[in-house]
Each structure stands twice: as C-alpha cells, then as structure tokens.
Write a structure and sequence with these properties.
It contains 7 helices and 6 strands; from the N terminus they run E-H-H-E-H-H-E-H-E-H-E-H-E. By secondary structure, the protein is of the alpha/beta class. It is globular and about 40 Å long. It starts with a strand and ends with a strand. The relative contact order is 0.19.
Length: about 170
C-alpha cells in the first residue's frame, strides 16, 4: 500500500493570512499528483480556534490563521473535491500524532510500501509530520515531493529538505 499525505493546503497558507507566491505555484502540481495517485490519500488541516492569540504558537506567530470554520481554514477550491474522498486529519499543531497513529494502525493491517508527503509549509508542518512518521515507521520509505511543497521562504524550504535528507527521508 502507498499513502499520500497532502499537508495543510488551506486558503490561509496559499492566498490568505500566511499565503506566499511559492504556495500559489504548487497548487496545480499538488492537484495533478493527488488526482493520479494510486493508494490511500490523507489531508491534514491546520486547525486553530478563537483563542489562537493566547496560545504559545499565537505568541510566537501573532497572525491568526486557519481558524476553524473560516474561509482560511478550508482546503483550497482546487483540492476540495479530492479532499472530500480522503481522510482529513485536523491538527492543532505542526505535527499530527493522530495522523501518525492512524497510519501506524494501517501498517498492522497491510504492509505500507511508501508514504509521500507534499504541501505547506515544508519547514514547519511537512517536516514535523515526516519526522513523526519516520520515528513511528522507521522501515517504511518516507518521501517528500519537493516540487509540490513550499516553505515560509525558499531558503527555509531548502534547509528543511536538507534536514530531512539527513534523517533518511527521500526527497524527490
């Protein structure tokens, strides 16, 4: 079994509060890869609440984003239909323990050949989830699609890719 994880392709990270040009540029490639993927697809959705500014993340990144129920929290329109046929994992922080545990449970039922991650942001949520999965399933091939991911900045994107390579995560 192969698994694809589409990380945080939400409006606020693409064209909203924390959007970047680099994020806008990957939407088409993410859509094509997800539409043609043969295997199980998961989407993660960064999920915060009205008290975001009172959280540690809100103190360190004082830009309210991905507030549950808002336009910014929603998966972008280009991927919405695909996400409706996938498992969506809401996550209150960078890495999702629930996602990791769900995939670990799947590995008990069927052999997982590979897990590919792509999305936003390479240097925060993509790397966090890739590292959790590598720790939970050290013999499963973990892959990050660099062309279908974007970081906060191009430099931080590249730094995250290099860090993941050092941890035996395959970068394509």
């Amino acid at each position: 079994m192969n698994i694809l994880i589409v990380v945080d392709m939400q409006n606020d990270f693409i064209s909203g509060a924390l959007g970047t040009d680099e994020a806008k540029l990957i939407v088409k490639g993410v859509k094509e890869k997800a539409e043609n993927f043969e295997g199980l697809i998961f989407f993660t959705r960064d999920t915060h609440y009205e008290d975001y500014m009172d959280t540690q993340e809100g103190e360190k990144l004082p830009v309210p984003h991905c507030i549950k129920g808002t336009w910014g929290w929603e998966i972008c329109d280009e991927l919405k239909e695909i996400s409706e046929n996938a498992e969506i994992c809401d996550k209150p922080t960078f890495g999702s323990i629930d996602l990791m545990e769900s995939i670990k449970e799947l590995s008990l039922e069927d052999e997982i050949e590979s897990i590919t991650l792509m999305g936003l942001c390479t240097d925060i949520c993509v790397i966090s989830n890739a590292m959790l999965l590598k720790a939970a399933l050290p013999e499963v091939k973990i892959i990050v699609d660099s062309a279908c991911s974007a970081g906060v900045t191009p430099k931080s994107h590249e730094n995250a890719l290099e860090a993941m390579k050092m941890c035996q995560i395959e970068i394509i």
